[in-house]
Specification:
313 residues; mainly beta; Tachylectin-2, Chain A; five-stranded antiparallel beta sheet; four-stranded antiparallel beta sheet; glycosidase; hydrolase; Glycoside hydrolase family 43 protein; hydrolase activity, hydrolyzing O-glycosyl compounds
Length: 313
């Protein structure tokens, strides 16, 4: 697999100076470098221009930005380019990212592919992998014990009120769904969430699901990070699969993992073997920054520690 990082960019940024939402870190061990992806448009709520990435040896000093995706002229979306996640899989690099469709105005997660971690990425799926009639976002790749790929994603609260986290099996080449979605849980089922009060829906009781990410614990347990709100403040929670498989059932830790206006988390390994959590905080534009926190696992529960070097605070 080609992992070499090539760029003419000479700019260096401190973590605290990078405006980014939905941070996703891809460690490249042979290179001794971390690639940071995320929602990088200055106004992510408007027209989409693409995705940029940054590269670092220490999570503190970042070289970039690298333009890793720019939409082709016939692309199916031109607004709301969100939450790119990049994975090494079967000899190539794959990006799962959310876009707002031009044809029906709904959000959906599509798959893109590239030969190198910094792209350029090109569309792989024919539009979103998520159902056409659904407003869906934040797709995340998970490969199960049998080696079969799945995508975990959110069925959006703005369409159904009580947001859901769902899973769909993917084709071997990741280009399309290979079955119907399965609902894993609803946001209101977690003991730590509270209804989200939206000025757009003042009389509705809404619960938000956002940014699911699955990872294995050191003891083999399967955990899921996902974000929601507590008293209209962005927060991150964690659930554990009782079966050890993607279909659960899922049991939620009673308290939020992080509740200080930060979330959309993912977990990665530092080069010294420690596990780290990446989130963005605060959850308001244009102040959002990447934040890296130590992560601990004990007796089937996950907890966060102090910010690591290079955190956004």
């Amino acid at each position: 697999m080609k992992s070499e990082l090539k760029s003419d960019s000479k700019s260096v940024w401190k973590t605290k100076d990078i405006q980014i939402r939905d941070p996703f870190v891809l460690p490249l061990e042979e290179e001794g470098k971390y690639c940071l992806f995320g929602s990088t448009d200055k106004n992510i709520w408007g027209p989409g221009t693409g995705f940029d990435a940054y590269v670092s040896k220490d999570l503190e000093n970042w070289e970039g930005p690298h333009p890793v995706f720019r939409p082709p002229a016939d692309f199916f979306a031109d607004a709301n380019f969100w939450a790119p996640e990049v994975y090494a899989y079967e000899g190539r690099y794959y990006m799962f990212a959310t876009f707002r469709r031009n044809d029906n105005g709904r959000l959906g997660t599509a798959a893109l592919a590239a030969e190198r971690p910094l792209g350029p990425f090109a569309p792989l799926s024919a539009g979103p992998v998520t159902p056409e009639a659904w407003s869906s976002l934040d797709g995340s790749l998970f490969v199960d014990e049998a080696g079969d790929p799945w995508m975990v994603f959110c069925h959006e609260w703005q369409q159904i009120g009580d947001g859901e986290v769902c899973a769909v099996r993917l084709a071997a080449d990741l280009s399309q769904a290979a079955g119907d979605p399965v609902t894993l849980f609803r946001a209101s089922e977690a003991p730590w969430t509270t209804p989200f009060v939206s000025p757009r829906y003042p009389d509705a009781v809404n619960y938000v699901t956002d940014g699911p990410f699955l990872f294995r614990g050191d003891d083999g347990s399967l955990y899921m990070l996902w974000a929601s709100f507590i008293d209209n403040t962005y927060a991150l929670g964690v659930a554990r699969s009782e079966s050890g498989g993607i279909l659960g059932p899922w049991t939620h830790q009673p308290d939020a993992l992080y509740r200080d206006d930060g979330g959309h988390g993912m977990v990665f390994r530092l080069f010294d073997g420690r596990r780290a959590l990446a989130i963005h905080a605060p959850n308001r534009t244009p102040e959002e920054r990447p934040l890296f926190l130590a992560l601990a696992e004990k007796e089937g529960a996950i907890s966060v520690g102090k910010p690591l070097t290079g955190s956004g605070e």
